[in-house]
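Researcher: Here's the sequence for the chain we discussed earlier.
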Amino acid sequence: MGWTADWRILNGVRDLSGISGLSKLIDGFIIPPTHLELNVVDHCNIACRACNHASPIMPAWFADPDTVFRDYAILARHYRPAFIKVLGGEPLMHRHLDRVIGAARATGIGDHFTLTTNGTLLDRMSDAVWEAIDELEVSVYPGVAGIEDNLRQTRDKARALGKKLTVFYYDQFRATFNLQGTTDRDLVGKVYAACKIANLWGCHTVREGYFYKCPQSIYAALLAGRPPEPDGIAIVDGTDFQTDLLAYVNATVPLTACANCVGTVGVQESHALMPRKQWRSHINLTMEEAVDYDWLEHSLITLDRCDDCKIPAGIKPAGFLDRLPWLRHAMSHFQLPSVQPTGIRLGRRVLRQPVEAIRADSGRPSDAEPGSEERK
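Model: Thanks. This is the structure I predict for it:
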């Protein structure tokens, strides 16, 4: 069972009813705020201590092309995202990645597929995968070796094939998971009301017959030893599915998994790689210990789309913005003057701040969105 209160009525929490992150029914299709995530693997080849997909300790799992086709074919009759973002874990660890993407594309659910990777395996990226995608997004983390060499080769490949390449640098993460959870229902409700993933970014995902409001609800449940399905909705080809799905994605009631997740208001910490055997102990916290209360209070008053962990490289000396969190937040809205802008999305399209954008069709706005990048 999930939480039963409508947390909009909590004292001090702003009303969610008019928020622009709601999914809408337009021309017979549910139109989400931004995109749909296709998680093709759970595991990863690096272990970031604040990974918001819990990849460092997830067992190996690979999305099956036939299952993806089955689920996406039903969903495509009712739901149309602006684009599909292919994630992991590290998605390039899937040996049949091109087949999985091809299966999803064949359903007609969308015509733009963005692959997000940590960049360490770019030198192994096959021509078939390049052909299967429309955009490549690379998340660069401190302490991960070999990325710049891979990027140099990847830039040339992207230009040659006419694919869009976007590169982001991260030096800060926010905590996501807490194993001990909480019994404070008010705190869970406030964290949910302040969560950009749930209320703005629309990071919906599909996994083995179920649709989920966010991938974190899957991984929070698995970390807590619970099956994730009760927090999702079964994908069925029935007359009531679209109505039920729209109610589910726009619900203001926290999920059961929310007791073990602090969404986008976790304490902020510098990025670091961590031995996998220490990862679970690092998140062995209560929700109360994992929350950044100042950021929670700020988010309950002003919920904007920016990802405050995503700061353009070269804008600051190391550690400078760590002492000025208000400036860090402000800078996340801007891109370097020397960076080619990728446009502003209208309606379903929202502002994007890439460090680098390379595309053949320079008139096209970026199809990437804030906040959804897996943090490995």
